[in-house]
Design brief:
The structure holds two protein chains of two kinds.
Chain A lengths: L3 E12 L2 E12 L3 E6 L5 H8 L7 E6 L2 E2 L3 H9 L1 E4 L11 H8 L8 H10 L13 H14 L4 E5 L7 H18 L2 E5 L3 H7 L2 E6 L2 E7 H7 L1 E7 L13 E7 L2 E6 L3 H9 L4 E7 L2 H9 L7
Parallel strand pairs in A: 3-8, 3-9, 6-7, 7-8
Antiparallel strand pairs in A: 1-2, 1-4, 4-5, 9-10, 11-13, 11-14, 12-13
Helix pairs in contact in A: 4-5
Chain B lengths: L1 H33 L8 H19 L2 H6 L14 H5 L5 H30 L1 H5 L1 H26 L4 H20 L18 H4 L4 H25 L2
Helix pairs in contact in B: 1-2, 1-5, 2-5, 2-7, 5-7, 5-10, 7-8, 7-10
The chains are: A alpha/beta, B mainly alpha.
């Protein structure tokens, strides 16, 4: 198992009576491109804010680069190794693009001027323009530039594709993959854009209600999770949902759509034993996996 | 760079207060220049203006920047934090953010006090001949304004902007009333040296009150720093 850049154990945070994080466990391997998924209010931004030292948790622990996040003596050193893109993409509106770069540069001794020039060109950022005059998409790109150019070992990106048009999304995705591949940077990003996550992430985690639902390598998840489509000549069997490894069952007339998380061979073999049954196996997309786990694809059966 | 950021974020407030000073001080100065004789009692027109300007400036400057350095519990949980998240994600402690913002605020407050006192020295000949009284008045203005600034900065660590203004105003009023009502010993009344009983009028420098103002400022700055350090992690 590769070294973990982020390790979270049993993290808890309540806002009033509402639990934003409810014993969250998470492990982000070094060098991975990690997609952190969940509905609005699932606890993604709260987790990110805790990792950055912005809000304290009520319980549990989190470590970045092996150092405890709650240690005030380590906090500054940890933040020097992290590039952060905030959810709202808010920077100082009275500064220009050039001004915010000059402001940020001295905080990071490892600032890379060649990267700065490269991303100014690639993202077509106008140096002299005020931040208040930039669109959200342009501010996303500017924040990415600020996060990347200081040679961060870990990029924490909260909805980095938010506000970007499709060509810009493609461009940003390409650059993120390049950074991960060329510099070995770990990228931990939250997003609602599931196709984009699927395009670049090698690991994903899906959380809901502040709890981890699914976590692992995307390829492994796709191997283990499969959809079985069952067409029956008579009434479909009613006890499929109880079989070990079945996540959900949806019924439509004489057809059953079964999402399986493990034991797919065994389950398929058992179902083939039933009389008058035809079975087909389909790979599962990340979107299907997400919808099944966060509630929209509730099972019936 | 934090110094530059603090200056960029507060310069308009300072310029606005300087402009307000010019507006408020202008008419009395015109009155002075047309008067046959200049009497220390004329100061009674100028002094309340100075007190008001100092305190409004102190409260205004001890504002949002300090709240950026130290968002109160719950302040970063709902979204819409503006650029605060970016600032706090920089590799600097909140205590340093607070220290820089406070230092810039103090310097700007001093700039306003120096300009006001300079104008007074120009138009009131008695001050030029009695320098130590003039310096005593300046010291009293600085100490009481610093105390108000520190109180407001400390309130900024746990109040939102609206409540900070109200609580700062209320605190000043309570201290003022305690002084007027004789509930506080006259020697420690931090407002004694800048109002109608200032050294310019009574020709005595209230050193104890000046020291009290400075101690009060240090106490509240210290309290604010302790609160902020507890949030630093």
């Amino acid at each position: 198992m590769s070294e973990a850049v982020i390790e979270i154990e049993g993290l808890r945070k309540c806002f009033g009576a509402q639990a934003a994080l409810d014993g969250l466990d998470l492990r982000v391997p070094a060098g991975s491109v990690f997609g952190f998924l969940g509905r609005n209010g699932a606890g993604k931004t709260t987790t990110i804010k805790h990792l950055l030292g912005l809000i304290k948790a009520d319980g549990g622990s989190a470590r970045i680069f092996g150092q405890p996040v709650g240690d005030p003596n380590m906090s500054v050193a940890i933040r020097r190794r992290i590039g952060f893109v905030t959810e709202d993409k808010d920077l100082y509106p009275y500064m220009t693009v050039d001004g915010i770069i000059r402001f940020t540069r001295p905080f990071f001794p490892g600032w890379q001027r060649d990267l700065e020039q490269r991303y100014l060109d690639v993202f077509e950022l106008p140096r002299g323009k005020r931040i208040s005059q930039l669109s959200k998409g342009m501010r996303s790109k500017l924040m990415l530039l600020l996060a990347i150019c200081h040679g961060a070992e870990l990029l924490v990106l909260d909805e980095p594709m938010d506000g970007l048009d499709p060509p810009a999304v493609e461009q940003v995705l390409r650059e993120l993959v390049a950074i991960a591949a060329e510099q070995g940077t770990t990228i931990f990003f939250s997003s609602h854009q599931l196709p984009e996550v699927e395009q670049i992430a090698d690991h994903v985690a899906i959380i809901d209600g502040g709890k981890m639902l699914v976590c692992g390598e995307l390829d492994d998840l796709k191997t283990h999770y499969q959809r079985l489509s069952l067409v029956c000549s008579d009434e479909p069997p009613g006890d499929v949902a109880r079989m070990e490894g079945v996540v959900s069952v949806r019924r439509s007339g004489r057809m059953l759509s079964i999402l399986v998380s493990r034991n797919v061979e065994t389950i398929a073999a058992q179902l083939r034993q039933l009389p008058g049954v035809a079975i087909e196996r389909f790979p599962v997309t990340l979107k299907e996996l997400f919808l099944e786990h966060v509630g929209n694809g509730k099972c019936s059966g | 760079m934090l110094w530059l950021k603090a200056w960029l974020e507060t310069r308009w407030k300072l310029l606005w207060m300087l402009f307000m000073s010019a507006l408020l001080v202008g008419p009395p100065l015109e009155l002075f220049s047309s008067a046959q004789t200049r009497h220390p009692q004329q100061l009674l027109i100028l002094l309340p203006i100075n007190v008001m300007l100092c305190f409004i400036t102190a409260i205004t400057l001890a504002g949002s920047g300090i709240q950026t350095a130290s968002p109160r519990p719950g302040g970063l949980e709902k979204g819409g934090e503006g650029s605060t998240l970016f600032t706090l994600s920089l590799p600097v402690t909140r205590a340093r953010l607070f220290a820089v913002r406070t230092a810039i605020g103090v310097l700007e407050l001093l700039a306003l006090l120096i300009s006001f006192n300079f104008v007074m020295w120009l138009v009131i000949p008695q001050l030029a001949t009695n320098v130590h009284i003039g310096i005593g008045y300046f010291a009293a203005s600085v100490s009481s304004s610093l105390a108000v600034y520190a109180i407001s900065a400390c309130l900024a660590t746990f109040c939102d902007e609206g409540w900070r203004f109200r609580a700062s105003g209320l605190t000043i009023m309570v201290l003022f009333m305690l002084g007027i009502g004789g509930k506080l010993p006259r020697s420690v009344d931090i407002f004694r040296g800048i109002g109608a009983t200032s050294s310019l009028v009574v020709q005595q420098i209230p050193w104890v009150a000046i020291a009290t103002g400075c101690v009060l400022a240090l106490l509240f700055f210290g309290a604010a720093l302790i609160i902020i350090r507890r949030r630093d992690y």
